[in-house]
Design brief:
mainly beta; six-stranded antiparallel β-sheet; five-stranded antiparallel β-sheet; 1 helix
Length: 540
Amino acid sequence: MTSTTPRSGMPLLAAAQAQKHVTHNQALVEIDALIGAAILDRDLSAPPSSPADGDCYLIKATATGAWSGQDGRLAYSLDGAWNFAAPFKGLTVYVSDETKLIFYDGAVWSDFASVVPLENIAMLGINTSADSTNKLAVKSSALLFDNIGNGVQAKLNKHAAGDTASLLYQTNYSGRAEFGLCGDDNFHMKVSPDGAAWTDAATIDRTSGAVTLAAGLKLPNASAAAPAVALNTNTGLFYDSTNSALGFSVAGAELGYLTSSMFRLALAGGTSTTISLQSEGNANNQIETYATGSATATYTLRKARGTIAAPTVAATNDVIGNINFQPYSASGSSGFSNSARLQAVVTETATLDASHLGSQLRIFACPIGSASLTEVARLDNEGGLSLFGANPVIDKNRAHRLRSTTIAGAVAPSVAGNLFYHSDAQGGAGEVAVDTSSAYRHAGQAAVRKLTTDADATYTPRADGRIVRDSAALSADRKLTLATTNVTDGHKVEVSRRGASGGHNRSVYQSDGTTLIATLADNANADFIYDATAALWFQK
């Protein structure tokens, strides 16, 4: 028979052993240390200085002092001395400073929890009690799910689309918020003020990903530099409290805002503003107004000098606004070029105020074969309608005005039916001229060319009117040459002689000055007509 027990190595009494009480007491000491074993610490390699009887430790390598050579053994203090016991397989020990059970498997110590089976248990409560509804209950200030691979997932599974798989947030065990798959396969975010009435605040469609907000999106009073809904650091949407509007910013600056009655773009610093609407096919851009009164849709173009923050009044010749019409030309940065323009210009000569707002509307177009805009027409209260610059054609009295030229400076005849005013026709009285496509024909009141000088004279058609009155006192026979300058076919002129001639005559000649047509004595008259085919004057 051995002298110790096979597992714990406790001493056994020998037959006829003397002082049996010593061996017996030693076994009792070891039983006291090992049965229901509890140690104070397992991280010491040197004994404490003043242990109490019954204090027990698991000695850590490498032991020193009174524990020297006892690595891995249990040290038990009794009567000021240390007793040592080797651990054996299956020994379970409670570690007081760790609040943990450990066991010895014959080689190493392990946590007791590593061998306690936790699979397929009916319920589990951690720091609280589980029940038939909450089969897993945890009462803790924090929960940690750590990963041991490339990631970590917490999964909530339901068996049918009509079931619910969600996370419920409570106040004093009354629901206040819930999100998950609530009654269908769309993702829901729900809130409640009392745990009974619930609002489906947001729903994300499982197929399209579209987000539905039951009560809309409320933005905080952010700023242009730090928008509430940011597309990046300083570009996005924010609430503009100054204008009670939805503001939007780009690169930290407010680009504009939207109110219940206004949409405004406001680019400071001289930046050009462009609103571009693009469409393939017909682009039908509409503004509709519905009202019981006379309200209507309005486009407004505004012009101020200064800045957005400090505007000043516009001045004469400032362009108030342009509406450009641009066909695609495959040139320039955009590929589109100006072809026509409607423009408003300040014409007020006084300082602009509520009573001084004179302005003018101009129309420009590119001529065929040119890429330069040319002014075609302008409208204002003073000049009325002007064409091709400051050339009024209908004034504010609704009177029509023809283009005025001299006979010599007239536009070359080209289009039959065009009307002009020749200011020096009819002896300077002026006359309307009709373009026959090859020449001008005058129409209107006949003017009188008066001959009062005792000398030869020349009649110039159109410039000298249609009547020649000769009242000169002649001292000799004198010529009247009928010129063909500016003459047109069928042109008529009446020549009458009423002067005291003393027997002298006024002879009428062709334009060459040598071919006689007729001779007029005193108190005689004759009519002459021009034949363009023959290029000659004939007496009628």
